[in-house]
């Protein structure tokens, strides 16, 4: 084997079990993040897990055997057929031992006993899965390299030719025909359809794979599309942007083909998507235009071509309010609404009204009810929505250039409406942090301000509600109610969050060891500190420190 193995920063895992405590044990009880494994989703049964797998494209599924609707055996069978690259680890009770062995026969790489298995047993299986995943990726690259005869110039010249046609740079049909012949494009006939394809979650793909490997993946994607489409249709494929989008120009030779165009193109791209799911580590969203009738004699091509390209791009943009990895047609396109100044202000007001100190579950619910649902109802133009998020971020972080840069850079990850919700949640986390670190500027009741001052000076030691109440001679019940009303947070959650902010500051500004930082912020148990930090930030302390480094 060659040594160019692709290794992503984290191996992506989904946990499937109908018991909340079991799923929580994997989230909190096992040192997954420290060993390079990331839980990207959870499901309560096989049906829900299968849908998650289609959306999230995980590397590993850890699943219980006995579950409602679809059990672990059925899930393993489905994954073996639909997503053979995914590795399955089975969770089992003693009485389910025969089922676990059957799951292994179906393709699962191993099984764990729910109750008795510990960290070592789980990590051993995960490491085995990691080796298989890396081997799969190496084999995939070797297959790609065997077919790597890509001619880079021709597709780019074809794309430039399309742009020139739309800009009406060819005066006669003869000059057009000459270019068609030179670029080996299929000659024009009765009519055509333009399809536009975009690789989903491309910024994340770039973080996982080397640019050389991504080029190979795109080569395979283009070869796959050309092979599948050329079986029944005449057409030409070319890149539309340098990175993640393609156009396919399909030609129709008769009125009958024009009438059947929509159903035929839809079926074609459904088939293409099936191959993509089997052989490539990403999904592709496709959209296509209405069929266009042309006549070169009347100079219709520039207008019709521009219409078709714009329709195809608009059709693909429907993924924003729907799902990635789907096929969309312009005939079902619902026009977007402009995000005017009045709507922006209404959204800004809704965001300002949300308490950033709510727990994440409540924050998500408030964001959905106050902001996301309004965006969905108004069907806002996606590009304008992204611009609003950028304006909002710059305004909120005007006094925090580093925070502004980090937030705005992450806007490239926003591709669908769910990403907007995740981005706004991150923005609310930033706001909460700022408020915590500048709490002396807030006008709290004197009892609460004294308590905040006490936290500020004693957070490096064990702190309890009783300590604060004894210090300030106040009833614990009354204090807890008052603290929640004034700050929007429970006392213990506030102390934990304050410690995490202090830890982040030390990680950014010092070279102290993580163990020493955990002690300095009042959490002497290093492992517990790491779990809290991961739960608060989504990263391990070491990963956070590495990401926070400012390039020189």
From TrEMBL:
SUPFAM superfamilies, sorted: CheY-like, Homeodomain-like
PROSITE patterns assigned: HTH_ARAC_FAMILY_1, HTH_ARAC_FAMILY_2, RESPONSE_REGULATORY
Matches recorded under InterPro entries: CheY-like_superfamily, Homeodomain-like_sf, HptR, HTH_AraC, HTH_AraC-typ_CS, Sig_transdc_resp-reg_receiver
Domain HTH araC/xylS-type: 449-547
Swiss-Prot/TrEMBL keywords: Cytoplasm, DNA-binding, Phosphoprotein, Transcription, Transcription regulation, Two-component regulatory system
CDD domains: REC_YesN-like
Subcellular location: Cytoplasm
UniProt domain Response regulatory: residue ranges: 12-129
Main location: cytoplasm
Sites of 4-aspartylphosphate modification: 64
Pfam families: HTH_18 (PF12833), Response_reg (PF00072)
Protein name (Swiss-Prot/TrEMBL): Two-component system response regulator YesN
Source organism per UniProt: Paenibacillus qinlingensis
Organism ancestry: Bacteria, Bacillati, Bacillota, Bacilli, Bacillales
């Amino acid at each position: 084997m060659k040594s160019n193995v692709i290794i992503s920063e984290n191996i992506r895992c989904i946990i499937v079990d109908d018991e909340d405590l079991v799923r929580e044990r994997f989230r909190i009880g096992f040192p997954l993040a420290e060993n390079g494994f990331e839980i990207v989703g959870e499901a309560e049964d096989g049906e829900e897990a299968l849908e998650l797998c289609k959306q999230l494209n995980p590397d590993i599924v850890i699943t219980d055997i006995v579950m409602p609707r679809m059990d672990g055996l059925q899930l393993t069978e489905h994954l073996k057929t639909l997503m053979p690259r995914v590795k399955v680890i089975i969770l089992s009770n003693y009485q389910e031992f025969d089922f676990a062995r059957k799951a292994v026969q179906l393709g699962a790489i191993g099984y764990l006993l729910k109750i008795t298995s510990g960290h070592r047993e789980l990590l051993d299986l995960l490491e085995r899965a990691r080796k298989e995943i890396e081997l799969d990726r190496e084999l995939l690259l070797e297959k790609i390299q065997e077919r790597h005869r890509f001619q880079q110039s021709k597709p780019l010249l074809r794309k430039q030719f399309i742009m020139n046609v739309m800009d009406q740079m060819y005066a006669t049909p003869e000059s057009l025909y000459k270019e068609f012949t030179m670029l080996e494009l299929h000659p024009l006939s009765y009519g055509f359809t333009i399809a536009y394809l975009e690789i989903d979650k491309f910024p994340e793909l770039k973080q996982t794979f080397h640019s050389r490997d991504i080029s190979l993946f795109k080569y395979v994607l283009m070869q796959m599309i050309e092979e599948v489409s050329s079986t029944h249709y005449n057409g030409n494929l070319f890149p539309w942007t340098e990175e993640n989008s393609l156009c396919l120009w399909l030609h129709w030779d008769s009125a009958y083909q024009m009438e059947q165009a929509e159903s035929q193109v839809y079926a074609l791209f459904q088939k293409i998507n099936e191959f993509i799911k089997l052989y490539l580590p990403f999904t592709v969203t496709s959209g296509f235009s209405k069929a266009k009738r042309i006549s070169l004699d009347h100079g219709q091509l520039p207008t019709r071509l521009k219409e078709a390209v714009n329709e195809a791009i608009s059709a693909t943009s429907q993924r924003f309010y729907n799902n990635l990895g789907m096929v969309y047609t312009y005939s079902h396109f619902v026009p977007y609404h402009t995000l005017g100044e009045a709507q922006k202000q209404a959204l800004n007001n809704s965001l300002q009204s949300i308490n950033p100190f709510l727990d994440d579950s409540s924050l998500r619910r408030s964001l959905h009810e106050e902001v996301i649902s309004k965006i969905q109802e108004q069907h806002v133009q996606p590009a304008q929505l992204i611009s609003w998020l950028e304006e909002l971020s710059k305004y909120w972080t005007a006094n925090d250039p580093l925070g502004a840069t980090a937030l705005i850079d992450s806007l490239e990850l926003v591709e669908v409406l769910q990403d907007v919700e995740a981005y706004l949640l991150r923005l609310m986390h930033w706001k909460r942090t700022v408020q915590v670190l500048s709490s002396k500027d807030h006008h709290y009741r004197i009892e609460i301000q004294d308590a905040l001052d006490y936290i500020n000076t004693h957070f490096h030691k064990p702190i309890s509600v009783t300590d604060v109440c004894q210090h300030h001679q106040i009833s614990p019940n009354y204090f807890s109610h008052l603290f929640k009303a004034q700050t929007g947070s429970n006392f213990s959650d506030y102390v934990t969050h304050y410690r995490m902010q202090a830890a982040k500051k030390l990680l950014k500004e010092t070279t102290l060891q993580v163990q020493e930082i955990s002690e300095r912020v009042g959490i002497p148990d290093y492992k517990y500190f790491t779990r809290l930090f991961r739960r608060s930030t989504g990263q391990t302390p070491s990963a956070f420190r590495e990401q926070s480094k400012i390039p020189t």
